[in-house]
Amino acid sequence: MNKQTIFRYLLLWIVLGLLVGLLSGSASAIFLIALSWATTFRENHLWIIALLPIAGLIIGWTYYKYGENSVKGNNLLLDELYQSEKPIPLRMTPLVLLGTVFTHLFGGSAGREGTAVQMGGSLADQLTKWFYLEKSDRRIILIAGVSGGFASVFGTPLAGAIFALEWMLHRKVRWKSFFPAFWTAFVADYVCKDLFGVGHTHYLVEMVPPHTFMNLLWIIPAGIAFGFSGRLFAQCNHFFSHQFSKHISYPPLRPVIGGLFIAVFVFISDSTTYIGLGVPRILEAFETPLPWYDWLVKTGLTSFTLGAGFKGGEVTPLFFTGATLGNALSAWVPLPLALLAGMGFVGVFSGATNTPLACTVMGMELFGYESGLFLGIACVIAYLFSGKSSIYTSQHLEHKFHLNPLDWLMEFRRKQNGGNKG
């Protein structure tokens, strides 16, 4: 590669990365401000949860009438990365932003990563209309958009860049994507945090035990549990989405029915612990023992919410699921409670998204680099034991190596049945 080519590459991606970072960071900041207002208003006016079915009708009808392929969400970004068929519509940004704010305002259980990633990818792809970009460059700008969205919504620029590369380029290395991903992530994080002044949640892991053989050995059963939990979360998502599609043919009606069930659940349980982002409960998981079933309830309620057609992400609910599962495991695993919560926080995320490196780095950015070895081992084990499952149906996992005996048994039975038929 000659100097002229390198200069063109750097100039192009410094400019594009700056633009994408400004757009995605600003979008995340506006989104987080709106989300904070929606959460505060809901907690101060709990009667609004009764209107969740009406909010579901508005979200469902809007996507049905105007959404087109935007309804595919994060999977649309992956599809366009792999196939590059048509531009991602700009309408995805306002639709997913308003849809997610409505979901949280009226009491749905969802996250925020999916919204930030979709806004980042949608806004970034609009630049392809104004700049001459080759097909490979369009893939890079999508990666940059995802990187900026993820980095700015969580305040983790390193993890944001690595997540975009690891998630979108599974088992493939394209060095041209590295600089745009990292540059955009840092720009977007700066815009959201420093220019808009939007803060992020801080988690505390005060005590990290020595790296003795026994301490590290205890990570294995915890990591396996996190992997199975990530798999359960992904499969519940797909199950409820399939059931709603199968039994309710008119899409706008799905979130109406789903919203009715969620509202009834909240009023019967007389608790708002499991709706919204659940950040207060996540913070509690680092400090004090919690009911063992918290992670199961959040898994079911979030899967049901998103399967019904409400909008939002899965990652913060995955943090909730992982942190509370780690908290529950502290009764049997002799590691500090906060450390186990932190391991679960990123471990379940790793298993559900197949991004162990990004999750490890994210954990170190959030909890401190001292816990890195515990976090890294937990994320890798969770990744290996989550099987070929993902919360993203379009993620390519054909060549993933895994250690899930359930998948091996199912594959063995398929081969046996095939042999018997022959």
TrEMBL record:
Coiled-coil regions listed: none
Any single Pfam family the record assigns to this protein: Voltage_CLC
Keyword Membrane included in the entry's annotation: yes
Localisation: Membrane
Transcription keyword on record: no
Keywords (A to Z) from UniProt: Membrane, Transmembrane, Transmembrane helix
Membrane topology type: Multi-pass membrane protein
InterPro entries listed in its UniProt record: Cl-channel_core, ClC, ClC-type_chloride_channel
TM segment ranges: 6-34, 46-64, 140-165, 216-234, 255-275, 295-313, 325-346, 366-385
Record protein name field: Voltage-gated chloride channel family protein
Organism of origin: Algoriphagus halophytocola
